[in-house]
Design brief:
This protein is an alpha+beta fold and about 200 residues long. About 50% of the residues lie in helices and about 15% in strands. It has 6 helices and 5 strands.
């Protein structure tokens, strides 16, 4: 699914969730044979009891489709960040695995570049996966180091040190919540519908 189609699915899922949520919280009731006018066209609702059923089905379909297309076929922002963090060499860190949302992190790429040009290319191709907040943004510095090869000659390698401020990591929480909102908002709407329409009336 293309990015534009996924965004349309996202909007549809959010609209369905908000309609179902409004239907439950506002206590909307449809009377049999009610006349409704929509865009200047009057029509009659003979079986109003099927309307909430249709909303529930639409909500469940929205959850399933967005999870499939947004999380299974496409990498979520969280998964992109997690894959980046997991691929890094943590030899200069005290932890074996960098937490996703806690603290600032500094790490080094797991592969040294033989020349500065390839190191600069790595920096330019680095995924824009971490939010930029209030001037805080991830930074990358290229550092050179000299070593002696197996043949006894001196060589220079170029490493990319990446620093991600804590503010950027914390801002990623909002991005992940927003991206997954078509799922959790529909789930919340379904739960509220069950509480208001079944439990409280039962």
């Amino acid at each position: 699914m293309h990015e534009l189609d996924l965004e349309k699915l996202r909007r549809f899922s959010l609209v369905v969730a908000l309609i179902l949520l409004t239907y439950s919280l506002a206590g909307i009731k449809m009377i049999p044979d009610a006349n409704i006018c929509f865009s200047g066209l009057p029509f009659k609702v003979s079986r109003p009891g099927l309307l909430p059923i249709g909303l529930i089905i639409a909500s469940l379909c929205a959850i399933g489709r967005f999870y499939y297309y947004g999380f299974m076929l496409k990498k979520s922002p969280y998964r992109v960040r997690r894959d980046i963090l997991d691929s890094m060499d943590l030899r200069y860190n005290k932890v074996k695995k960098v937490p996703t949302y806690i603290g600032s992190i500094e790490f080094k790429t797991n592969i040294s570049r033989p020349d500065r040009e390839s190191a600069e290319k790595y920096v330019s191709d680095f995924p824009d996966a971490f939010p930029k907040v209030a001037g805080a943004r991830p930074s990358m510095k290229i550092k050179s180091s000299e070593f002696i090869g197996e043949d006894g000659d001196n060589y220079i390698s170029y490493d990319v040190n990446i620093v991600i401020p804590a503010l950027c990591i914390h801002a990623a929480i909002f991005q992940d919540i927003d991206y997954s909102s078509p799922i959790w908002l529909n789930l919340a709407s379904l739960i509220i519908f069950i509480i208001f329409q079944i439990v409280l009336k039962g």
